Amino acid sequence: MLRFTEIFPKNVSAFVSGAEINFAYPKAGNFLNSGQEEYVKNEFKVSPLRVASIKQVHEDNIVIVDDKYLKDGKVPFADALITDLDNAVLTVRTADCLSIFLCDDKSRALGLIHAGWKSTAKKIAQKTVGKMKEHFKVDPGDLKAVFGPCIRSCCYEVSGELKEHFPREIILRDKKLFLDLALANRNQLVEAGLDIRKISDCRICTYCGDNCFSHRKDGEGAGRMLSLLVKNII
Ligand SMILES: [Zn+2]
């Protein structure tokens, strides 16, 4: 498990689970995950009713987690969540895709993004910053960002079709093309107004690193790691 304790304010918890627990939804249509509920209760003493989950679809929809959202308990199709609530737990699941944690130092608004290449091509990171600006009056220059594990350019071989989406982030090596997914998102965040010095990256590759689930390595049945972001735990 990775905890980003040094980067965000003390009352903000941000972490990514490892391969000890599989957080994949148990089956299609069942978006309540008992593993997640138990975990959140034990680790953070937060009610599972305050956990916001999404059905990730590799698009660019962003949900605003407010009291109504938590009360309704719906799980919408989306790939990012933002909130300014205390004790609202934002979650995404990954196995090669990048999870991006955002926290505004001033307003303490939070954002959590599931960024695979498709959502990255649709500029989900940039759009999430825009939404935080619009709804929580966030100044992008105040935002801190952390990148969780993802498949890195050491292992992420891609087809030539992706070149048009990522002209600056595709690398040619041994006559093969590799995508630097983290760099693509870093570039987007800088374009959105973030200070590059406030973007941290754990630099772990899910494919060749230890203790990670990897869709590319493990195939369709790959487990999922849980990324979680919450502030003001009681
Ligand atoms: Zn690698």
How would you characterize the overall build of this protein?
The chain has one domain (about 1-230): CNF1/YfiH-like putative cysteine hydrolases, CATH 3.60.140. The relative contact order is 0.21. Helix content is about 20%, strand content about 25%. The strands form 3 sheets. It has a 6-stranded mixed β-sheet. Strands 1-2-13-6-3 form a 5-stranded mixed β-sheet. A hairpin with a 2-residue loop joins strand 10 (about 170-175) and strand 11 (about 175-180). It contains 6 helices and 13 strands. The chain has helices at about 35-45, 65-70, 115-120, 125-135, 180-190, 215-220; strands spanning about 1-5, 10-15, 50, 60-65, 80-85, 90-95, 100-105, 110-115, 145, 170-175, 175-180, 200, 225-230. It is of the alpha+beta class. Zinc ion (ZN) binds near residues 152, 155 and 205.
In short:
This protein is an alpha+beta fold and 234 residues long. Helices cover 21% and strands 25% of the residues.
Instruction: Give the CATH superfamily.
Output: CNF1/YfiH-like putative cysteine hydrolases
Number of domains as seen in the coordinates: 1
Average pLDDT across residues? 92
What is the fold-level CATH name, i.e. the topology?
CNF1/YfiH-like putative cysteine hydrolases
What is the H/E order? EEHEEHEEEEHHEEEHEHE
Low-pLDDT runs: none
Structural class: alpha+beta
Main sheet makeup? 6 strands, mixed
The number of distinct helices, counting runs of at least 4 residues, comes to: 6
Using the 3D structure, state the CATH architecture: 4-Layer Sandwich
Name of the top-level CATH class: Alpha Beta
What compounds sit in this structure? zinc ion
Q: What overall form do the CA principal axes indicate? A: globular
Radius of gyration: 17 Å
Helix content: 10-25%
